[in-house]
Amino acid sequence: MWLAMALPTVIVQWTETLEGLMSYQKLLEEAEHLIGANECWTGMTPEAVARMRLQNRFKTGLDIAKYTAKVMRRDMDAYDNDPSKYTQSLGCWHGFIGQQKIISIKKHFKSTERRYLYLSGWMVAALRSEFGPLPDQSMHEKTTVPALINELYTFLRQADARELGDIFRQIDKAREAGDAVKERQLTSAIDDFQTHVVPVIADIDAGFGNAEATYLLAKKMIEAGACALQIENQVSDEKQCGHQDGKVTVPHEDFVAKIRALRYAFLEMGVDDGVIVARTDSLGAGLTKQIAFSVSEGDIGDQYNSFLDCEEVGAGQRSNGDVLLTRGDKVLRPKRLRSNLYQFRPGTGADRCVLDCINALQNGADLLWIETEKPHIEQIAGMVDRIRDVVPNAKLVYNNSPSFNWTLNFRQQVFDVWVEQGRDVSAYDRAKLMSVDYDGTELGKEADERIRTFQRDAAKRAGIFHHLITLPTYHTAALSTDNLAKEYFGDQGMLGYVAGVQRQEIRQGIAAVKHQNMTGSDLGDDHKEYFGGDAALKAAGEHNTMNQFAA
C-alpha cells in the first residue's frame, strides 16, 4: 500500500563537459528541481547534493580512462608542435603515494598539466605480491596490477573530495560572516577546479601469457582506469626486468598479436583513443625463444631471422636434431643453446630496436619505449632518427631508471667529451669518478648540469615525449625510513621524529601532517551533517588534536 502511495521519482539528466562538470550554480539548480519534485525526500538540501556530485566527478574507472585518454592525446599533439612540452611521471606503489605526489604537484606548480602517474611492474612484484617480494619476472599475481590502478584512482578521487570539501566549508564561513565577495571568489574556484585525476601509464609486462590472456588483463586494467598500457616484446614466461641479463624476445608477429589484443580491449571498453606503448628490450636481449615464420625473402619474419647468429653448413656437416634455415642458396645453422634458445649476433641490438619500433608503430602502437643500459642522449637519438625516417612523428616513453648510476654515467660522459676536446683530465680517475672527492670539481658540476637538463635535452633531441622514473618512491621510502630509524632509535629519541619529520611537515605545508583530515574525517563530518542535521556527532570538534596544526 505504501509503495502505491509513494511519489514518482523525477530523474534529472546530469551533464558534464569535456573539461569538467557543469557550474556549481547549474548543479544547484538541477538538484533543487530534483528534490523539489520528490516530496518524500525529507531533510535533503540541493547544496549537499550538488557538493557530493562535484566531489564524485568520476563514477567508474571507465569514466577515468576515457577522460585521461583525451588528456594524454592532447598532450601528445602539443609535444608534436613543441618538444619543450614533454610529460613526466613517477612510479607509485600505493594509492597514498600517488595521492601525495599529485597534491604536492598542485601545491608547488598550481597545475597537474603534463604530469602523470606510472604504475611499475617492478614495484608491483617487489611490494604488492602475496608471495612476498619478488624480482621483476612476471611471477606476481596479474590481478595485483588492476587492483593497484583502482587503488591509485580511489586515493586521487578522495583528494578531489577533500580539497573541494575544504572550499565548501570556506564558503559556509564566508556566508556566516556576510562576505559575499569571498563567497563569489570561492564559488569561482569550484568552477575552475582542476582534478587530481591524471593519466596513468600502466605496465602490463609481456602480457602474462598468450594474446588472449593479455586481452583479458588489459580489460581489467582499463576498467580500473588505465588509459595507457605499456607492453614489452619479451617472452612472457621468460620475462626479465629490463635491467637484468637473460632477456628473450619474441618474433614480431607474436608481439603484434598482443598489440592488437590491447587495441581490441580498448575498443570493446569504449576507450577509442586509448594509448598503447610498445616497449622493445632488444638492445639488451641477445636471445630469442623461436625462429620467426617467414613466407618470402625480406618479410618481417625473414628480417627477424637475419639477426640470428648462424653458420653456413654443407650437406655433410649436418647433425641429428639440427634446426636449419635457408637464405638464398645457403643453408644455415642458427646457434642454439642448451636451453633451446637461439642467439642473436652480437652488435645487432640497435638495428633490432629500430625494426621493432617501426613495426610496432605500423601495427597500431602509439608510443615507443626503448630500454637502454645507460642514459645517453645521442645513443637514444641515433635510433630515434632512424625510426623517424620512416615514421616522422615517432615519440618515446623513456625510463629514467634508478638502475642507472646517474652520477658515474654522466661524469664519465663528460670525461670522454673532454678527452675528445683535448682537455687536461689528469686530475681525474675515470674509474673512480663516483667519489665524493669530485663533487665540487668542474667536471662534477658539468655532469650535474647535464643530469639536471637531461629530460629537457632528450625531449628536444631524442623524441622523448614522456619521462618517467620507474621506482623512485621505493627508494625514497627506504631512505626516509633509514634516517628516521637512525635518529629515533638512537640518542635523538622522539626528537628524531619531531625535528626530522613533523616539524618539516608543518613548515613545508605538507597536507598529510593533518593525517585525520587526509584520511577523510572532515569529509565524514560533512556527510554526517547532511544525513543527520543538527543531531550529527562530528569528529572535528575543539578536542580534536588536529587543531594543533591549524594554519
Automatic annotation (TrEMBL):
Cofactor, how bound (note): Can also use Mn(2+) ion.
Transmembrane spans: none
Catalytic activity: D-threo-isocitrate = glyoxylate + succinate
Pfam family name, one: ICL
Cofactors: Mg(2+)
Record carries keyword Metal-binding: yes
Keyword Magnesium recorded: yes
Coiled coil: none
Single GO molecular function: isocitrate lyase activity
Residues annotated as binding Mg(2+): D203
GO process terms (BP): carboxylic acid metabolic process
Residues of the active site: C241 (proton acceptor)
Keywords: Lyase, Magnesium, Metal-binding
InterPro entries: ICL/PEPM, Isocitrate_lyase, Pyrv/PenolPyrv_kinase-like_dom, Pyrv_kinase-like_dom_sf
PANTHER family to which the protein is assigned, alphabetical: BIFUNCTIONAL GLYOXYLATE CYCLE PROTEIN, ISOCITRATE LYASE/MALATE SYNTHASE
Protein name: Isocitrate lyase
Taxonomic lineage: Bacteria, Pseudomonadati, Pseudomonadota, Alphaproteobacteria, Hyphomicrobiales
